[in-house]
């Protein structure tokens, strides 16, 4: 969740015939992130080529949708990253640096950029002249950080990735601008990576697979090439809803300009001209301290919220309820719940706004009429799920709070198996998949048991 850049090295510009098939059809509704990865693996699906991370978006075309009006500049765009997967797999050999063997080739430009950014930020922080601290500038930095966080949590995450509510053009524009303040990658890349993460969480197809450790899931995944499965599965994600959104199209077309203006220039200029701050200190506050903090707060959802905490809703998965992440990530740390009900606009079961600032603001926009169709599961559905799969730490179950529920959940997980999330009731699913949440979850549970038995047979 959240990244500076996700572009990959092009291994071969000459595609192998039949290597990539057409993009998903526009008529097909986005499945977002609720599918069963094991079902997808058994069916052997592999479809469209990965679309470009920057520049103009290429919109899938279909003969029977010829009446749809699409900007010609978007139609004519040729994607930069049509990576030949066969060649990519063949050359996917981890780098060896000073005896350290990595699982993937390193992206040295990102290694240098991210490392240097953090080193400079820490160095400036340690030498910052505290006697020149301007509290107006400090409050401004917190405000800008909050805007950036809201753009990520309410915009890129809850709205564009999971479609957990609907928004009018004004709110969508505000969400896009707020996301630009965060200074992360394009909305298209962010949404695609996060949908893949949910659909294949903690498998090789997960861009920031937490099974590979804290550092990898936090920031290391940005410093090395993606696992081939991430690219393959990413090409299967239906992104037609993102391609059709004019706000996203505008963001994609002017990505660099918007990022520079809203993430770096405006936040730095305001304290200089309004609060009398010096250029050097304003730059340090906004382009170093605030920006680096914002990035790490977002990354913590991928790392800390997948490794530490309780699992009251599903003990079989790694995502956990982590209050510290919820505080710094504006309500995104209730992650065990979120991975079970990803389409809930609250991203948590909480009935109030305690450490869920994003939900409070969204409810405000709902009262204004700018946001509507705020999705959330029934209390009965939540109760059934947590009683069946939870680790017993839910407040309604009143069990011993001294137990190490995180350890219990981890010990009962089935390797790298991804369990299906409770599906969004508004979406249609493949005929081969069950339409009820209980049957889908049982189906995955049976798959996990089959894998356990097969492992035992191999060992014996």
TrEMBL record:
Instruction: Give start and end of each Fatty acid desaturase domain.
Output: 134-342
Q: Which GO terms describe its biological process?
A: unsaturated fatty acid biosynthetic process
Q: Name one GO cellular component term.
A: endoplasmic reticulum membrane
Region of interest (Disordered), residue spans: 1-67, 425-460
In which domain of life is the source organism classified?
Answer: Eukaryota
* Location of the protein in the cell: Membrane
Q: How does it sit in the membrane?
A: Multi-pass membrane protein
Q: Which cofactor does it need?
A: Fe(2+)
Give the keywords, sorted. Fatty acid biosynthesis, Fatty acid metabolism, Iron, Lipid biosynthesis, Lipid metabolism, Membrane, Oxidoreductase, Transmembrane, Transmembrane helix
Spans traversing the lipid bilayer: 111-131, 137-156, 256-276
Keyword Transmembrane carried by entry: yes
Q: Which is an annotated GO molecular function term of this record?
A: iron ion binding
Q: Where is the composition biased (Basic and acidic residues)?
A: 439-451
Please state what the annotation says regarding this protein's domains.
The histidine box domains are involved in binding the catalytic metal ions.
Q: Which family does it belong to?
A: Belongs to the fatty acid desaturase type 1 family.
Could you tell me what this protein is called?
Fatty acid desaturase domain-containing protein
Gene name tied to this protein: Dana\GF16194
